[in-house]
């Protein structure tokens, strides 16, 4: 019997872009399922739209004060004008001082500040207006203040948010509406308040669907932009972004960062002897074998042709060497002629190799990969001028037991 979440996802699938894969539907529920690049792009978009929203409110909030001046008496107008100036200053600070960093928690903070400013203004103005006896015209204008929660709730539609994020923000706005009703309990028109509250819930549902639709399109577009269409791993452009992000994280936390260049041996002979379709299948099989031996925090990038880059955060050189050794022992797949597919690998690590930039880290790993290739292929070069780890692969054809992998060490002088 399907779970409630599965049932919800199946219903959402009929309302969202067909480009979204079934495995990606759960990304619409919680943000922790998102990839690093999707998180970065989404955080940047949220902050940019927060700043756009803040600009709009910073301009329109004081303009409405002109209407207050005409309609309300002096003490009330002055109080409302003071609230408006404070809100305008807060919006201006948010617009001028907040910049996108690609960090999701920074984006959460920005959107929280954005919605906190008008929410506080709404509660304060609502309380102030409740203390005055308003005439017919001033009562009509004061009614306009009651629409602020609806504007904020509708504003959620411009953000690409998950379902949980939508529920949290919508709940805060509904609580603010309930608090405003509680503060004016003695004069509250209950039928009107209940109708407004129900309308606010309805708008919350519509904006949640709009936000999820935005997020779904974003997931599909980011996937198409950052993935290599043949192998499904990260493309070179997105790999460079991941490298910079992991470098920044490593620098902030003083943690290890290892990078390995993997170049398949004699790959051109596959295309020449068996055709490009066979070569493409070998690349897909190789990518799958490498992914099967990586952690969830590692990233595999198709750098170009038959070259792959493995980015391993929080990993020192010895840990990376052991991980690559296990990867080679399990193999990179098979060639069309039944022989094992082998690779020449270059390894570099930020601390052990005293690297000063992500470009240097990639260049050193690339250089060591060429050293591995020129020294006989099917090996790992992890030390400049020291030694190469040689992986010897032998297939047991007669016994039919498949591949058996042995490991030896050989010296290599640079």
Automatic annotation (TrEMBL):
PANTHER family: DIGUANYLATE CYCLASE DGCM-RELATED, REGULATORY COMPONENTS OF SENSORY TRANSDUCTION SYSTEM
Compartment list: Cell inner membrane
Regions that span the bilayer: 50-71, 77-98, 110-131, 137-159, 166-185, 197-222
Name the record gives this protein: diguanylate cyclase
Cofactor(s) the protein needs: Mg(2+)
Gene Ontology molecular function: diguanylate cyclase activity
Pfam families noted in UniProt: GGDEF
Region of interest: Disordered: 395-414
Chief location category: membrane
Lineage: Bacteria, Pseudomonadati, Pseudomonadota, Gammaproteobacteria, Pseudomonadales
GGDEF domain sequence ranges: 255-385
Catalytic activity: 2 GTP = 3',3'-c-di-GMP + 2 diphosphate
Species whose genome carries this gene: Pseudomonas saudiphocaensis
């Amino acid at each position: 019997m399907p779970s409630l979440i599965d049932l919800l996802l199946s219903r959402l699938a009929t309302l969202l872009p067909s480009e979204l894969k079934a495995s990606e539907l759960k990304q619409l529920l919680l943000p922790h399922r998102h990839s690093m690049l999707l998180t970065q792009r989404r955080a940047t978009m949220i902050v940019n739209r927060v700043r756009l929203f803040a600009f709009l409110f910073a301009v329109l909030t004081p303009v409405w004060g002109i209407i207050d001046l005409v309609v309300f008496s002096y003490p009330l107008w002055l109080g409302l004008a003071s609230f408006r100036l404070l809100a305008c200053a807060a919006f201006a600070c948010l617009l001028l001082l907040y910049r996108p960093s690609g960090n999701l928690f920074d984006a959460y903070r920005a959107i929280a500040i954005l919605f906190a400013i008008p929410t506080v203004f709404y509660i304060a103005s609502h309380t102030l207006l409740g203390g005055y006896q308003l005439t017919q015209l001033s009562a009509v204008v004061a009614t306009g203040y009651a629409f602020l929660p609806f504007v904020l709730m509708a504003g959620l539609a411009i953000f690409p948010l998950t379902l949980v994020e939508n529920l949290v923000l919508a709940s805060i706005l509904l609580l603010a509406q309930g608090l405003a009703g509680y503060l004016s309990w003695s004069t509250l028109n209950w039928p009107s308040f209940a109708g407004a509250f129900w309308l606010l819930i309805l708008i919350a549902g519509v904006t949640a669907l709009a936000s999820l639709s935005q997020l779904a399109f974003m997931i599909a577009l980011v996937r198409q932009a950052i993935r290599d269409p043949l192998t499904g791993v990260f493309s070179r452009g997105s790999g460079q972004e991941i490298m910079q992000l992991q470098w920044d994280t490593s620098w902030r936390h003083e943690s290890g960062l290892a990078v390995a260049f993997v170049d398949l041996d004699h790959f051109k002979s596959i295309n020449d002897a068996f055709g490009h379709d066979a070569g493409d299948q070998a690349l897909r099989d190789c990518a799958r074998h490498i992914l099967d031996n990586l952690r969830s925090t590692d990233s595999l990038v198709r750098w170009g042709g038959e070259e792959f880059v493995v980015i391993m955060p929080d990993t020192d050189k010895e840990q990376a060497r052991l991980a690559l050794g296990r990867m080679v022992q399990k193999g990179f797949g098979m060639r069309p002629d039944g022989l094992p597919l082998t690779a020449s690998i270059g390894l570099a690590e930020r601390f052990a190799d005293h690297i000063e930039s992500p470009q240097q880290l990639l260049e050193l790993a690339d250089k060591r990969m060429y050293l591995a290739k020129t020294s006989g292929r099917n090996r790992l070069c992890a030390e400049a001028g020291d030694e190469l780890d040689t992986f010897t692969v032998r297939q047991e054809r007669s016994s039919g037991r498949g591949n058996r992998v042995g490991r030896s060490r050989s010296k290599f002088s640079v």
